[in-house]
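Notes from hallway chat w/ T.B., transcribed later so I don't forget. T.B. wanted the structure written out for a chain they're using in a teaching module, and asked if we could keep both sequence and structure tokens in one place. Agreed to drop them here.
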Amino acid sequence: MTKFLKKLLFVSFSLFLCSSAGVSTDKDDLTIVKKAKESNKYIAVYFSGSDWCAICHVFKNEFVEQKEVASILNADFVFYNADFPQRKKLAKDITATNDALAEKLNPNGIFPLLVIADENLNVKKVITKAMGYDKAMEALKESIKK
């Protein structure tokens, strides 16, 4: 599969998840929480700043969008990209969902950050660019719900 098609698939999947996110900020009403409970999977939330965070793009390209990582995120987790752009406006429901997730999973506002949480939004693992690919991949694989 070409690099372009991989990115297109990833972006399409991310937009699908963003568009299906719940409006309520109550964790039990968030669509990703419901999906995690229904599918018996953990949640993976990627916190990024798409139009201002250069290192977010690096982490996304070097880790999140890599074929093996994207495959794991899509198959073994309920994956969600919580984007916090500064120049572009997001729909109010997406902003509310992102804010609710950040309050619970990323209260210090660290970007980029990949957080693995259970269906009750309890943090299980935090993955950062500083970990490097191998350690980040190991952490991701260890986080798959058995």
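Follow-up for T.B.: Helices lie at 3-19, 31-39, 54-64, 67-76, 92-105, 132-142. Might be a good example for the class.
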